[in-house]
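Data availability (excerpt). The following record was deposited with the supplementary files.
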Amino acid sequence: MWADGRVVFGYEGRAPSEMQQTRVAPDVVEALRTRVFAALDGESLYDELGLADPATGKQVGVLGHGFLARIFVRAGDAWRIAFVHGVSREDALAPPAPTSPIPALGGVVHEQPSPRFVAAYRLLLDARPTRGEPWRPSAYDVWLYTGQPVVARVPWPADLPVPSHEPNACRVLDTGDGGCPYRIGPADVVAAERLRARLQQLEPPRGVEWAGESWAISLTERYAGQDAIDRGGRCAASMIRVGRFGQQW
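Predicted structure:
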């Protein structure tokens, strides 16, 4: 949600390409921002849900599903950010439940995030619009890979700027690392959507071809202001270092 009333929203189980957009009154956004900001007052920057030793209370493991729920809210120059690792949307909205013993592991599962986090989460979900129109991303993040099998490919579109990457620089290593990033900006979003539609018609593994090379490709939608959210997430992660269960940041 943005201060001018723009809203981008989705529903469980739907891909980012199926997200919706609409507008609400700016005072509705301001009222929600105030309530969510207040709800997170005193909330931990990062929490993990998992196993605890019933004798000592010491936490000894993290929940297996490993989802990371994140809330960002901005008030002027101030941000409040809350991450909860080990919680899904269903967990956050479930009624509080007693801890469940797991004898084989010698511990219990704490499945509930803090009341502050749940309150903020519920405020955001309750404010989600019921209808909108198909969302158009403001940009795309593209990753390009060489050295990957590509069975079906299309030529790099003439209406998109050609990446400057050298094929060898984008080769996937044995470790799985590699690839080259490429940002498609707002002026070329429509052309990027046409490329994505063409790729979706091909059998995987699919890719593009230019400079006499086949490139595996992935495209990820970006919304306006996402760079600021990403910077806030990296800043928060730098302060967390390592979670209680060894989750690396």
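Summary of structural features: DSSP finds five helices and 15 strands in the chain.
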